[in-house]
UniProtKB/TrEMBL annotation:
Database matches in Pfam families: LEA_2
Organism taxonomic ancestry: Eukaryota, Viridiplantae, Streptophyta, Embryophyta, Tracheophyta
Record InterPro entries: Lea14-like_2, LEA_2
Stored Gene3D superfamilies: 2.60.40.1820
Listed name of the protein: Late embryogenesis abundant protein LEA-2 subgroup domain-containing protein
Domain of life: Eukaryota
Domain named Late embryogenesis abundant protein LEA-2 subgroup: residues: 71-170
Amino acid sequence: MTEQTWKAHFHEAKSSIGRTKEGMTAIITVFALTVMKIKSPKVRFGTVSVENFSTGDTNSPSLSMRLVTQFAIKNTNFGHFKYDNSTVTILYGGSPVGEAFIPRGRAKARQTRRFPVTVDIGPVQLSGNPNLANDINSGILTLTSQARLSGKVELMKVIKKKKSGNMRCTLNINLGTRVMESQCN
């Protein structure tokens, strides 16, 4: 083999390897964007228990309690979801009455991350609401919880996409049994 033919053969082999790498990159990218479509994580409460529950009378309505629950972040993606610090807010009549801190973290690929969350609702926050006496007399107290977790989903350490998980739940507390039913959107 002459030097001229050897150089031509080497150049042809080198460009063939380059085309193979480009082709593999294109196939992986198409696969990542179609089959492994990046979705927003699902954020939910688990079972909610009511502790330290007390109410005032109808002349001076007040309510205080502690809500204890499991907070769940369900990541259905093929890559992990890294999220920033956030908060869960509990509302009564549209006004915030309690808040819990959610520290930044990571939900592994195709797994659900669960951790405990405690929210204290004190009498000071609820005493100004004119509907509180009616709700206490009816035996059902309706609260709303909301949270937004913002972060990034990372696929194959190459593709990073910003996504956020939102939660908005209606929490109905039966004041007689202290059992809570939640309905999330």
